[in-house]
């Protein structure tokens, strides 16, 4: 494995979506990439005391890949998710390094329980990766249900704000990190994505406010690009007829042509930022393959 380098794909333009033009280039460059390895990552991150990171929505997709990276690098993780999926295997493979909280982030006491579990298990908190979220409702504004939007914001915004609020006092003590898993939809509109795009725009704004209000905490919002996850499957199944034809066709073709990012690609950046994000990144929205985070990205 080559060492980290400052060279990286060009940062996406402001009007690019989660499938920015550089995604295809990165995919071609990594066509023959083997299984993700954390060898260099471990060398970089085990020189000091293990850190303690909460990862929400950590049982599948990007969240699971973030958890796996952190565990491979010998750090401790509190994984919060509604369903356990492969958690038992992680507990078996990394005894003592992982605590699992099976809970819905919208339940009022979940944020407190997650932070409390981190403190009781590991005596501190170094970072939070806010990864949980939903795409639905996929409807145009004229047909929108206000109740559906409220439910969406409960998941994507208010429950995220809840765990951030709960974590801040403890992150001040460790000069910790908050990493928001954002989206290109935060800066580009798609028909029928009003709820999702606006909630991710709220993420970016909350990130900037954390940076403004908490100088001892580094907060970064990261766009992971178009990633091969359940959310992409959902939009392929439900987006036809409500999204614009061109946008919908673009997402479908990206899947059919194998151009979606693997979860491990953005996850490596998100995991490393949760450990070591530099303060000059605080408040910024960055693409996972952008030049601002080149040093956090493994190059093959």
Automatic annotation (TrEMBL):
Disordered, as annotated region: 1-35
Q: Name one GO molecular function term.
A: oxidoreductase activity, acting on NAD(P)H, oxygen as acceptor
**Gene3D superfamilies reported in the protein's UniProt record:** NAD(P)-binding Rossmann-like Domain
Q: What positions belong to coiled-coil segments?
A: none
Q: Write the record's keywords in alphabetical order, separated by commas.
A: NADP, Oxidoreductase
InterPro entries xref list: NAD(P)-bd_dom_sf, SDR_fam
Q: State whether keyword Iron-sulfur applies.
A: no
Instruction: Return the similarity comment.
Output: Belongs to the short-chain dehydrogenases/reductases (SDR) family.
User: This protein is called what?
Assistant: Short chain dehydrogenase
Q: Which organism is it from?
A: Pseudoneurospora amorphoporcata
């Amino acid at each position: 494995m080559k060492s980290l380098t400052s060279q990286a794909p060009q940062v996406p333009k402001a009007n690019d979506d989660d499938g920015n033009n550089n995604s295809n280039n990165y995919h071609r460059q990594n066509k023959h990439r083997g299984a993700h390895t954390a060898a260099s990552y471990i060398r970089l991150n085990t020189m000091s005391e293990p850190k303690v990171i909460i990862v929400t929505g950590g049982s599948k997709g990007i969240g699971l890949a973030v958890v796996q990276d952190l565990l491979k690098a010998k750090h401790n993780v509190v994984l919060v998710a509604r369903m356990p999926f492969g958690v038992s295997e992680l507990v078996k493979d990394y005894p003592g390094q992982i605590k699992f909280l099976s809970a819905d982030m919208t339940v009022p006491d979940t944020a407190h329980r997650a932070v409390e579990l981190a403190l009781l298990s590991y005596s501190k908190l170094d970072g939070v990766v806010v990864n949980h979220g939903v795409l639905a409702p996929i409807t145009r504004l004229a047909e929108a249900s206000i109740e559906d939007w409220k439910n969406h914001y409960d998941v994507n915004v208010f429950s995220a704000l809840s765990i951030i609020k709960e974590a801040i006092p403890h992150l001040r003590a460790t000069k910790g990190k908050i990493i928001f898993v954002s989206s290109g939809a935060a800066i580009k509109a798609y028909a029928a994505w009003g709820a999702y795009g606006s909630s991710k725009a709220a993420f970016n704004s909350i990130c900037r406010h954390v940076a403004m209000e908490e100088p001892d905490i580094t907060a970064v919002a990261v766009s992971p690009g178009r990633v091969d996850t359940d959310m992409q499957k959902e939009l392929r199944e439900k987006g036809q007829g409500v999204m614009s034809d061109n946008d919908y066709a673009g997402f479908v073709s990206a899947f059919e042509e194998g151009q979606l990012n693997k979860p491990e690609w953005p996850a490596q950046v998100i995991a490393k930022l949760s450990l070591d994000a530099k303060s000059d990144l605080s408040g910024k929205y960055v693409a996972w393959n952008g030049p601002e985070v080149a040093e956090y990205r493994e190059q093959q």
